[in-house]
Amino acid sequence: MGPLQYSRKPPPGQGFSCARSHPHGCRRCLLKGCERWFHPSRPQARYCSPTCQRAARRWRRWRAAQRYRASDHGKQCRRCQSQRYRQQRRQRRALTVSDTPAPEGQRPAAIPQDFSGWSCDRPGCYQLFVPSPRSPDQHFCSPACRQALRRVRQRDIRRLERRRRGARPRRFRVRPPP
Fold first, then answer.
1. Are 28 and 35 within 8 A, CB to CB?
2. What is the pLDDT along the chain (178 residues), one digit of tens a residue?
3. Helix H segments across 31-117?
4. Quick check: 43 and 22 in contact, CB under 8 A?
């Protein structure tokens, strides 16, 4: 654990400085692959730009589809869809009178029946992993992804605790130079 883990300041070579007059401090973008430092416009902001927000939304849709396809109902629907596709293909092949067969792609030699690959919980991480026997409830593909989401959750908890205590929001005064 390095000193920059909980720091509200970007590393020295990163272009801008976090002024103490900014109400929400500096933070890193949660999206995997971006991780830029930014000044949030509101306390709950997790992403540095609308582009990162769209990418996170796309990741959430992808992850929901992965979960659905792994469920029993999703597998059944996919099986029915594949059967309908094969029937349509047979019907089309019967209609076309052609001596040369259409080229088809290669399938893998063996398709595992029960692939228990999970997707990482960090937004933007499309990494699939197999949970280790030591920790079957694993949610992240790497320690870096786990730390990124931990930072966000701890920040949210601190904010909620301040609200529960009835603390007033901090007001920063810009002091004139001496």
1. yes
2. 444 444 555 555 555 555 444 556 788 898 988 888 888 888 888 999 999 999 999 999 999 999 998 999 999 999 999 999 998 888 888 877 555 554 555 555 554 555 557 888 888 888 888 877 888 788 888 889 889 889 888 988 888 888 888 766 666 665 555 5
3. 50-70, 72-95
4. no
